[in-house]
Amino acid sequence: MSMLKLQVYPLGPLQTNAYLLVHEEKNKAVVIDPGMNPQPLLKRIADLEVEAILLTHAHFDHIGGVEQVRTLKKCPVYIHPLEADWLTDAKRNGSLRWSDVTPPIETAAAEYDLGDGQVLHLLDQQIRVIHTPGHSPGSVSFLLENLLIAGDVLFHMSVGRTDLPGGNMRTLLDTIHNRLFTLPNETIVYPGHGPKTIIGYERQHNPYVY
Prior knowledge:
It is a single chain. By secondary structure, the chain is of the alpha/beta class. The chain has one domain (about 5-205): 4-Layer Sandwich (Metallo-beta-lactamase, Chain A). The chain has five helices and 14 strands. The protein has helices spanning about 40-45, 60-65, 65-75, 170-180, 200-205, and strands at about 5-10, 15-25, 30, 50-55, 75-80, 110-115, 120, 125-130, 140-145, 145-150, 155, 160, 190, 195-200. Strand 8 (about 125-130) and strand 9 form a beta hairpin.
């Protein structure tokens, strides 16, 4: 991990955190959740080789920049199979419902599926996939040593909403208690919106986790 830098780009009207993992020595990168209006991210990756686009889930604000990044860098997209068809369907990814925020968003199908416990070998590192449903059925988090990129499951002093199609509060709480809070206290959580936090702090103080 020492060779890698993690950079965050809050994108679009919902300020969705896109993350860029950069291996500076090799001039390679991985993009996680390229959201809407991705121009700052596109500028940053212009001279990088992008090995993959990883998606924590397929809500429109997390996938708005997928095609622009994929077209520019000729890189594959990875998503959990429970949301594979959300990429190609503006109704399922929510962009039709939020027409005041976004035009309909549809992308080509993803190249690869993500599965719980899968280990991705990217940037000469191992990135572990954890299925973390509740906010949406196919939500996943990505664990790289002590860094967790968690999508919209767990936030600083909050949790992901569960009132969207496929969301379930009981499932979300089960995910947080049994899949995230079993990680070491010092694990740094990088959420889909807002500031980073740590597992130990959220276990102690998060008012939504009961």
